[in-house]
Design a protein that fits this description.
7 strands, 131 residues
């Protein structure tokens, strides 16, 4: 048994559907850049946390200026997935630099005697060990 459609029971018009699609498109255009920025912030936070933990492990694994027990350091450190951290001998002291291996996350972080910062200039030199 089918019933005859009522006078106002015809469904959506093409204009109504287009308006809904446009509104959804505008909302997506606003939301996607915000989500991508939060993702980059999360990558940076994991790299910074890993740099701090590696710096503590370097202090524990070094037996003097310029002497580092690499095997002990590698045993103590567990990095977040896709993070890369390098330990660099900076004269008498150590510095660590790191970055996230995802595409689009080009920021390199450095932790040294001056604190945490971005850029490789403060921690120049070849890596003693890459984790």
């Amino acid at each position: 048994m089918s019933r005859a459609p009522a006078v106002g029971d015809r469904g959506f018009t093409l204009v109504e559907v287009v308006v809904v699609v446009v509104v959804l498109g505008v909302l997506a255009a606003i939301a996607v850049p915000v989500l991508l920025a939060r993702r980059a912030d999360a990558y940076a936070a994991t790299v910074q946390a890993d740099l701090r933990s590696v710096a503590v492990a370097v202090e524990a694994a070094s037996s003097g200026p310029g002497v580092l027990d690499v095997a002990r350091l590698e045993d103590q450190v567990v990095l977040s997935p896709r993070n890369v951290v390098e330990v660099v001998a900076d004269g008498e002291r150590w510095c660590v630099r790191g970055w996230h291996g995802a595409a689009g996350s080009a920021t390199r972080w450095v932790l040294d005697r001056d604190g945490l910062g971005s850029g490789d200039a403060r921690c120049a030199g070849p890596a003693v060990v890459t984790l």
